[in-house]
């Protein structure tokens, strides 16, 4: 089940969100529940602490009039619920850059307006998209890379994966996505064996062949679809040629 959470300091705004979400769930009869609606960010963290396997869709105000901001709350949520979808609802549109700075991968960023009808439409769209992704991740795991981080498993679409590279820390790798990076415990051997789409082209690089944009043979490098460059060895180039054939 997908669990929805609201953290909003305005009672009036919170009640409108609750009504919108409950009505949508009732009408569509989806495997979703409004798990918690609160103005206290710690309430959500306490809930997740007691239910660590929760997969949630979170509607968070950024300015909660508390010591913990919505940005900090989202960062803490991400540490527990790696597959959760986060939506920011705020009157402070100028703070949107903070979500990118903290690499929170927000599903949407909704700026509060005088017309709640617009907010309602965006909220429903987020629920629809969030639920679709939840079902997809649940039922089609073969199209996702399972990344173990602590006691949680994060499901990452193959289409988002550019390449893997070694880290300066022992037994740790860095996964390069379209617009972010994630560190996790694994080995290059494990990644090679995970999928035939992952090809080792260098001692320190394994690429997703589906996301190669260009092979620079002279410069002995690959350019990925997100613009990043990967080194390729002579042996790696031969291996890549075999795969691409």
Question: Could you walk me through the main structural features you see in this protein, from its secondary elements to its overall organization?
Answer:
The protein has 245 residues and is an alpha/beta fold. The chain is 36% helix and 32% strand. The protein is built from seven helices and 15 strands. A five-stranded parallel sheet has the order 2-1-3-4-5, sandwiched between helices. The protein has a five-stranded antiparallel sheet with strand order 10-9-8-12-11. Helix 1 packs across helix 5 (116-139) and helix 2 (41-50) packs parallel to helix 3. The chain is elongated. The chain starts with a strand and ends with a helix. The model has no long low-confidence stretch (mean pLDDT 87).
Q: What is the average of the pLDDT values?
A: 87
Q: Can you identify the CATH superfamily of the largest domain?
A: Response regulator
The secondary-structure class comes to alpha/beta
Instruction: Write down the CATH topology of the largest domain.
Output: Rossmann fold
CATH class of the largest domain: Alpha Beta
What is the element layout, followed by pairings?
Elements: E1 2-7, H1 11-28, E2 32-38, H2 41-50, E3 56-60, H3 70-80, E4 85-90, H4 96-101, E5 108-111, H5 116-139, E6 144-149, E7 152-157, E8 161-166, E9 172-177, E10 181-185, H6 188-194, E11 198-202, E12 205-208, E13 212-216, E14 221-224, E15 229-231, H7 234-244
Parallel strand pairs: 1-2, 1-3, 3-4, 4-5
Antiparallel strand pairs: 6-7, 8-9, 8-12, 9-10, 11-12, 13-14, 14-15
